[in-house]
Task: structure prediction
Amino acid sequence: MCRPLRTKLVPMNGTDERPPLHPIFLDLSDRPVLVVGAGAVGIRKSREFLECGARLKVVSPEFHPEFAALEGSFQKIERPWLPGDESGCRLVVAATSDPDVNRAIYAICSQRGILCNVTDVPPLCDWQAAAVARVGRSQVAVSTRGGAPSLASLARREFQDWLSDGFSELVDLFARLREEYKPRMANADRERFWKTLPASDLLELLKRDGAAACESRIRSLADAEIAKTDSVAAPAARKGRVVLVGAGPGHPDLVTRLGLKILGRATALVHDRLVPDELLKAVPTSCELHPVGKTGFGKSHGQEDINALIVELANAGHLVVRLKGGDSFVFGRGGEEIEACEAAGIPVEIVPGVSASLAVPAWHGIPITHRGLSRSFAVVSGFHADGTVARIPDVETVIVMMPLHSLESVRLRFLEAGWDPSTPCAAIHAGTTPDEAGVFSTLDKIDQDLARAGLASPMMVVVGKVVGWAAQHAPDAARLHTLGRGGLAG
Ligand SMILES: C[S@@+](CC[C@H](N)C(=O)[O-])C[C@H]1O[C@@H](n2cnc3c(N)ncnc32)[C@H](O)[C@@H]1O
Result:
């Protein structure tokens, strides 16, 4: 049986509606920190702070016996907490057995702008400790926001193994060689060189052939880079490259793994409006962001400006990722960008994307081919820059992209081509995203139904018997008919 519409079954951001915690790594070395309460929690927190080199003060009338082993490494104040103990401290932990005292400590810290954590009372925590995997200088901190501490520990153990399995060694190697090569590379070249090294390939090499082999590979790449930038052909050699990456139809998980990998290496990102925000977070924080969707870029900047921008960025040495909705070659003007790069002598690579033309019907249970109903399909554009209307190809399923401004003419084209007016159609807005909505109709009245539903761009219309099949076999699809706008999302 066909999978029904799945909007609710694939949560985009989990169920926690609160904004995320901001993860940071604090340098506490020689910074004053206060722990109030010296029981089982107090000793654990104290050890963590001392490990990070903090100047630790512990206030409590009684001390857990394990504090004996820490004598001399912290300031021990053997009395109940007094207001003022927190003065000058960067962080405070309130771990006494008296909730009123803990609340009072929190209140004073809040007044004085000191970050406080009352153990096991999430509303009274300005910060939360993470489960930390640490090998050498590499650390991974995991938080489930108190939702599943045992799973945070599981993740910590997994990361510990992963860091130990070559990653931390590779980090040390990078750090050492970066220092060594610093004087031999100009700032911009150095940045680009280290960012664009094939890190996952180097990690594999290190695990397979050892650190020495990996080091000699990095050295040969660095020496080649220096030779390039020193040579007379330096300006050409410093050119970057452009990668056209398809971002998928809207759901952030519908990008390819290769696409994500390249995003992680981008030094400049030129992206469309239809690209999911989550993917913009996949680039390194140092990556330049250039939004070129119509709203972000202004009407007067067209394809030629975008071509000029990617060429300019690549000429400046960037690894430019040109991220487009769906697939770059399905009404994506990727070919024009390739021509522009070609003319400027800039290498271009393509990472295919999941086109909305195929993914959105599938997401809503519409099989664009189906034995006995449809052996062929076509994707056409309803919008033609020269004002002409799409010709309807001789196929059994048609996906009309950008239909909004020409739907009435397109509909007549179907009827002129001999299509039955009762042929089922589905209009789908923003498929695979939280805003998705749709109408289920027939060719004779799809334009009126669509006007009533008031669906906006991005929107597509799927025409063919397979849409009727979906209405029967993917139960939620039928709800488009009765619910109109919002039906898909309902
Ligand atoms: C310029 S085309 C780009 C298509 C894109 N390159 C692709 O492969 O999916 C933009 C049109 O694709 C369709 N489209 C893109 N994403 C969509 C979505 N999530 N739901 C419905 N239609 C979508 C709409 O017709 C929109 O106007």
User: Anything to note?
Assistant: The two ends are 21 Å apart (CA to CA).
